[in-house]
Design a protein that fits this description.
This protein is an all-alpha fold and 202 residues long. 78% of the residues lie in helices and 0% in strands.
């Protein structure tokens, strides 16, 4: 049985993962280096390698934790709830994630753009199973006339696209809006709730 990590070891491991998230989300997996991650974490490269044997190991650890975070908002969609409110809640949870976890969103996007070499089994397994389950719920609501007749998979894809855009293209959003428009997420929340309310009404 391995000994419990010390407080310093837990702190250093967390610092490495936080630094790696920043570096990977900016440079992608291929562009990131262990030297960059170590410098961002304030550690030497040998010290970093004490905790993680490779760049791949750090990346895989981040992705494993990210997937569960990413699935949580969809898991919370309640089949027993009021359909439009449940779906609007999902939109809002996804938008809040883009606001609160922009680096995580860009890390995920970079992995997908590279063909998902390290996360494909999870996409084809856990993610697909959850989406299939919730798509069946949404299709049931549509069949019962409780929401508009809409393709549940493309509805979910649209929610992903319209919320994660604000994290993945944050620089573009803020440049186009300019400095006088305030927090883009407040306007996005109002717009997306209006858009999806109108789309989903039977």
């Amino acid at each position: 049985m391995s000994p419990e990590p010390t407080r310093i070891q837990r702190r250093n491991r967390r610092a490495i993962l936080d630094a790696a998230l920043a570096v990977f989300s900016q440079h992608g997996f291929r562009g990131a280096t262990l030297d960059q991650i170590a410098a961002e974490a304030g550690l030497s490269k040998p010290n970093l390698l004490y905790y993680f044997p490779s760049k791949e190991a750090i990346h895989e650890t981040l992705l494993a934790g990210l997937l569960e975070t990413w699935l949580a908002p969809l898991r919370a969609l309640d089949a027993e709830g009021e359909p439009v409110e449940e779906l609007l809640g999902y939109v809002r949870r996804k938008l809040a994630m883009s606001r609160d976890f922009p680096c995580e969103s860009r890390l995920f996007a970079n992995e997908i753009l590279q063909g998902a070499p390290r996360i494909m089994p999870a996409l084809e397994g856990e993610l697909k199973s959850l989406v299939d389950e919730k798509a069946e719920v949404i299709a049931g609501w549509a069949a019962a006339g409780r929401i508009a007749d809409i393709d549940p998979y493309h509805l979910i894809f649209s929610i992903w696209a319209l919320t994660q855009h604000y994290a993945d293209f944050d620089v573009q959003v803020r440049a186009v809006l300019g400095t006088g428009r305030g927090d883009p997420f407040e306007g996005a929340d109002r717009y997306l709730v209006t858009l999806f309310t109108r789309m989903l009404r039977p």
